[in-house]
Amino acid sequence: MINLPLLFALQASSTQVEGGLFDFNATLPLMALQFLILTLIMNFIFYKPVSNVLDERDEYIRNSLTTASASLLKADELTSKYEQELAESKKEAQDIIKISQQEAQQVVSIKIKEAQQNAAKLVSEASYQLNIQKEQALKTLEDQVDALSDQIKLKLLDNESLI
Predict the structure, then answer these.
(1) Sign of the CA dihedral with 130 first, then 135, 140, and 144 last
(2) What is the pTM of this model?
(3) CA-derived radius of gyration, the chain
(4) Which residues cross the membrane (predicted)?
């Protein structure tokens, strides 16, 4: 490598003072060569490793995005599937509830009919019993009326025979 302080010292020691600020001697190509060498060294030492790290990072981000997109699609599919299953389950539950309500309504109507039939049967039996009791009461009354009329008749006949 070229030692810069040594070059400056050599240049300062020269006693020739020519063009001043824009002096085109051996230092200009030497500086250009030094710039190119430093650029190559910087490229190998810093730029390539940094660009490799950046490329790896880009690839990792792309892979992560691809994985995330696939996971998101899968999650969307699962969500739609579960929503569809939930809708079907709700419909089945509503159908079961509807059927249960209809069955309960039928059971209630059957029980009401049975209760009405039992009530009508009880009313008819009570009416029949009342009619039987009425007939018995009337028969008993007729018997009593007949007995009383016979007694009255006997008393009247006894009283007429006494007169």
Answers:
(1) positive
(2) 0.44
(3) 64
(4) 29-47
Hey, what's the torsion of the CAs at 148, 152, 154, 157, to 10 degrees? -160
Contacts of 2 (CB under 8 A, 6+ apart): 30, 33, 34, 37
Residue type, 133: Q
Q: Which helix (H) or strand (E) holds 62?
A: helix 48-162
Q: At 15, is the secondary structure helix, strand, or coil? A: coil
Distance of CA 27 to the CA centre of its chain: 80
Q: Is 2 helix (H, G, I), strand (E, B) or coil?
A: coil
User: pLDDT tens, 63-101?
Assistant: 999 999 999 999 999 999 999 999 999 999 999 999 999
Triad 34, 53, 49: Cα angle to 5°: 25
Q: Please give the Cα distance from 111 to 118 (Å, whole number).
A: 10
DSSP 8-state class, residue 20:
T
Residue at 89: amino acid letter: S
For residue 79, is it left (φ>0), alpha (ψ between -120 and 50) or beta?
Answer: alpha
Q: Tokens 């209809």 sit at which residue? A: 102
Q: 39 by DSSP, 3-state: which?
A: helix
Residue 13 CA to residue 40 CA, distance in Å, equals 31
